[in-house]
Amino acid sequence: MNRLPDTFLWGGATAANQIEGGYREGGRGLASMDVVPQGTDRFAYMFGEISDLSFKDGRNYPALTGIDFYHHYKEDIRLMGEMGFKVFRMSISWSRIFPNGDETEPNEEGLKFYEDIFLELRKYGIEPLVTICHYDYPLHLVTAYGGFKNRRLIEFYKRYVTVLFERYKGQVHYWLTFNEINDTLFLPYIAAGVVLDPTEDRDTQLYQAAHHILVASAWAVKIGHEIDPENKIGNMVCAGEWYPYTCAPKDVFQAMTNNRKLYFFTDVQARGEYPSYGLKELERKGIRLPFAENDKEILKENTVDFLSFSYYATHVVSADERVNAELAGNPLATLTNPYLGPIKYKRQDDPMGLRITLNALYDRYQKPLFIVENGTAAADELKNDTVEDDYHIDYYREHIKALKEAVLLDGVELLGYTSWGCLDLVSAGSGQMSKRYGFVYVDVDDEGKGTYKRYRKKSFYWYKKVIASNGEDLE
Question: Of 120, 127, 241, 373, which is the active-site residue?
Answer without folding.
Answer: 373
